[in-house]
Amino acid sequence: MQPKQLRKGRPYPLHPSPSGQRQAVPVTGVAIMAVGVIIAGDQVEAILQEGRADLIAVGRELMYDPYWTLKAAESLGCDPGAKMWPDNHGWAIQRRSEIMAAAGRR
Q: Could you report the per-residue pLDDT of 33-86, keeping only the tens digit for each?
């Protein structure tokens, strides 16, 4: 008898199915969460604005970059002046923003 092969993760991303899930919300009152390959703040905003999900799960991206939420807020224009950043980081982020703006980049 061969030992059972263990799968290491999924070889494909998981995406919420747009059909069916949205229809279940009014009946059950259960919130829908989007998961899988969500890597940018504008992507999160689009999913929420289009009503494709009520919640967003950003797991691996946060492991890759613990400051992802702060960077997403900056890219969406929600954190002018880097006020959400910890004080010991905020000054450097503010300076970087000024340099990027002077160079014509965001």
A: 888 888 899 999 998 898 888 889 988 899 999 989 988 888 888 887 778 888
CA distances from 56 to 7, 29, 33, 102, 103 (A): 25, 17, 5, 34, 33
Evaluate whether residue 22 is within a structural domain.
yes
Residue 39's alpha-carbon distances to 30, 61, 91, in angstroms, are 25, 6, 25
- Does a structural domain hold residue 59? yes
How many domains are there within the chain? 1
Tokens of 17: 């199915």
Residue 25 lies in a domain: yes
Asked if the structure places residue 90 within a domain, the reply is no
Express each pLDDT in 1-28 by its tens digit.
555 554 555 444 445 545 445 555 566 6
- Domain boundaries, position 27: 15-64
CB 81 within 8 A of CB 87: no
**pTM for the full predicted model:** 0.63
